[in-house]
């Protein structure tokens, strides 16, 4: 049994882990894109809306970290969302050089529909998992993230 475990770790550390994580991210992203297309919202735009709604991101810097974008790409994405009338920039009372982002009434109206659709995507992606497998997946991903945080 330990031999099998070591073999799996060797295989994953030989590049398979990166491939699987990258392929899973692409599959998730593409599924969300397809599901939100009729709402004229991209997956990246949804991440911005969801982050604002959950209080996990309100500045350009926070969104850069969440999406892994550089500040130029993030600014372009936010400009496109703002042009659609779905977010607005407001003065940051704690830092006059920066802005906070907030949802507009238009995005607050469409966000619940988008969130339901994204939740449906994730439920489809978790089809076939029982509660124990889903918990193990979550624990495994959290461990990978914790290990990565220790490396950086």
UniProtKB/TrEMBL annotation:
Where are the coiled-coil regions? Answer: none
GO biological process terms on file: response to stress
- The residues covered by the HTH marR-type domain are 14-146
Under the heading SMART domains, the entry gives: HTH_MARR
* Database matches in InterPro entries: HTH_MarR-typ, MarR/SlyA-like, WH-like_DNA-bd_sf, WH_DNA-bd_sf
The protein's GO terms of the molecular function aspect are:
DNA-binding transcription factor activity
* A UniProt-annotated Pfam family: MarR_2
Instruction: Note the superkingdom of the native organism.
Output: Bacteria
What is the recorded name of this protein?
Answer: MarR family transcriptional regulator
- Biological source species: Rhodanobacter lindaniclasticus
């Amino acid at each position: 049994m330990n031999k099998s475990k070591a073999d799996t770790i060797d295989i994953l550390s030989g590049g398979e882990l990166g491939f699987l994580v990258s392929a899973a991210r692409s599959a998730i992203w593409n599924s969300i894109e397809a599901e939100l297309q009729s709402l004229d919202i991209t997956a990246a735009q949804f991440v911005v809306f969801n982050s604002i709604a959950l209080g996990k991101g309100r500045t350009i810097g926070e969104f850069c970290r969440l999406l892994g974008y550089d500040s130029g790409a993030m600014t372009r994405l936010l400009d496109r969302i703002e042009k659609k009338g779905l977010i607005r920039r407001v003065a940051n009372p704690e830092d006059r050089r920066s802005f906070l982002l907030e949802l507009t009434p238009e995005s607050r109206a469409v966000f619940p529909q988008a969130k339901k659709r994204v939740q449906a995507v994730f439920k489809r992606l978790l089809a076939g998992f029982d509660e124990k497998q889903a918990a193990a997946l979550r624990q495994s991903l959290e461990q990978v993230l914790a290990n990565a945080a220790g490396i950086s």
